[in-house]
């Protein structure tokens, strides 16, 4: 798996965290959903998947 880092403004970060919380999902899952939406928008298959068995995913159910 590869790591992606993105810098966003404080307001955007807060809004994304709240959205993930409202949807009862980890922020990582929300980001994977967003990346797959970008792929679909540009005619590519939605192949981005959440990592498994790595730091930050322990004890979480897979969707």
Can you put this structure into words, describing what you see?
The chain is 44% helix and 0% strand. The protein is built from two helices and no strands. The longest helix has 15 residues, at 27-41. It is an all-alpha fold and 63 residues long.
Give the topology.
Elements: H1 10-22, H2 27-41
Top keywords for this entry?
63 residues; mainly alpha; 2 helices; 0% strand
Query: What is the distance, rounded to the nearest whole angstrom, between the alpha carbons of the first and last residues?
Result: 18 Å
Which structural class is indicated by helix and strand composition? mainly alpha
- Average of the residue pLDDT scores: 87
Number of DSSP-assigned strands: 0
Low-confidence stretches: none
- Main sheet characteristics: none
Write down the secondary-structure element order. HH
Describe the global form: globular
**Rg, Å, rounded:** 13 Å
Give the count of helical stretches: 2
Strand composition percent? under 5%
Structure in a nutshell:
The protein is an all-alpha fold.
